Amino acid sequence: GPAISLHGVTKTYRSGQETVPAVRGVDLDIGSGEFFSLLGPSGCGKTTTMRLIAGFEEPTTGSVSLAGTDVTGVPPNRRDVNMVFQSYALFPHMTIHDNVAFGLRRARTPAQEIQRRVAEALELVELGDRAKYRPNQLSGGQQQRVALARALVNRPSALLLDEPLGALDLKLRQTMQIELKRIQREVGITFVYVTHDQGEALTMSDRIAVMNHGTVEQLGTPAQIYEQPASRFVAGFIGTSNLITGTVTSGGDGARMELGSGQHVHLRTDREDGASIDVTVRPEKIHLSTSEPAPDHSRVRGRVTEVVYQGSATHYTVDTAAGSEIVMFQQNASGAGNLAERGDEVWLSWLPEHSF
Ligand code: ADP
Ligand code: MG
Questions:
Q1: Is residue 124 within 8 Å of 187, Cβ to Cβ?
Q2: Nearest by Cα to 121 from 91, 89, 82
Q3: How much distance in Å is there from the Cα of 201 to the middle of ligand 1?
Q4: pLDDT single digits (tens) 85-126
Q5: Are the C-beta atoms of residues 150 and 163 closer than 8 Å to each other?
Q6: For a surface tag, which of 45, 60, 294, 323 has the fewest beta carbons within 10 Å of its beta carbon?
Q7: Where does the record place the ABC transporter domain (predicted)?
Q8: Number of Cβ atoms within 10 Å of the Cβ of 1
């Protein structure tokens, strides 16, 4: 069965006269050994969901189960999960060794066992040679790894990480993302990872729950969420997408959105003629050309307003005759020049199955 289950969980905070619905009817099953991410904008209820799993908060309604046992009402220290915070919360006056040993000492673990486990945990995060240092003698990334060692040392069956890399600069974040994946594979326990960074969630996760306003908007693998976003919100939040608006007109070959002068978007829709509708297309699915594309493609004319070289790709912004700006990416092969320059009149086209 699942390592962590939430059933119909809501959490409403009271602040003064106000009630704040932070989590609204969340159902989740997180598998044992899974790297599971909660992804969403600030204020969508990620931290609250984590605190409900850890036991720092109790649900207003619903229940939380760990390994099939209902733990609603069980205090945090009696739940088999640990939480790692963005602020590492290390004791500044203690050595790294003592920071990691702290919980084991409190649990009156035998000294030899403490020695062995602390050494093992520091080895795991590659800080075996820093045991005698103090936190302020380590870099930010190293301090985060100490926090991780401390959370792993009592061998919880799940680790909850709340934006753990938020305080690190981009380069270090990317190194730590790979590091965290390695550690999770090595210890084989469930990781629940909170982030507002879609790139981070896509890179690291087995599955992602995209949250918005206290609810889960979509649950799936990174590829499912990126390729088949379930809502406008998910499409807008994950990756870059273009939104094209128009009205449905059905033709001989199925529904279309007519944009005039041979421009049209093919649609899969059960909406009636004249209904106003929008479609989303990812930049990398769009083809840019100066010659007219085949009519069985969705196609829009426009003028290039921006060409931005970004190394591995070039980004084009096109002001379309359909009234919206569309962004597309060209992967750069060596020696290949630009597809178009600023001011050029171009066609954009894509396969009907690549819009949603
Ligand atoms: P996230 O981690 O996704 O940024 P949070 O779970 O921290 O979101 O917060 C969700 C909502 O609940 C926000 O509107 C926040 O202001 C509110 N909230 C969080 N904690 C409290 C609290 N202790 N008291 C009142 N409101 C809170
Ligand atoms: Mg938060």
A1: yes
A2: 82
A3: 21
A4: 877 789 999 999 999 999 999 989 999 999 999 999 999 999
A5: no
A6: 294
A7: 4-238
A8: 9
Domains of the chain: 4-232 (3.40.50.300), 242-354 (2.40.50.100)
Partners of 263 in the β-ladder? 260
Which distant-in-sequence residues (6+ apart) come within 8 Å of 93 by Cβ?
134
How far apart are the C-alpha atoms of 24 and 74, rounded to whole Å? 21
| Residues, CB-to-ion distance under 5 Å, ligand 2 | 47
Name the residue at shortest CA distance from atom 13 of ligand 1: 43
Ligand 1 centre from 218 Cα, in Å? 20
Which position has the token pair 């931290």?
A: 47
- Predicted complex: ipTM over 0.90: yes
User: What is the whole-number distance in angstroms between the Cα of residue 26 and the centre of ligand 1?
Assistant: 15
Q: Which ligand is nearest to the CA of 52?
A: 1
Q: Which helix (H) or strand (E) holds 120?
A: helix 111-124
Mean residue pLDDT across the chain: 92
pLDDT of residue 232 exceeding 70: yes
pLDDT digits (tens, 9 = 90+) for 157-183: 999 999 999 888 888 899 999 999 999
pLDDT score at 253: 58
How many other C-beta atoms lie within 10 A of the C-beta of residue 305?
A: 12
How many helices and strands (H and E) does the chain possess? 8, 19
Ligand 1 closest atom vs CA 15:
25
The rounded Å distance from CA 21 to ligand 1 centre is: 9
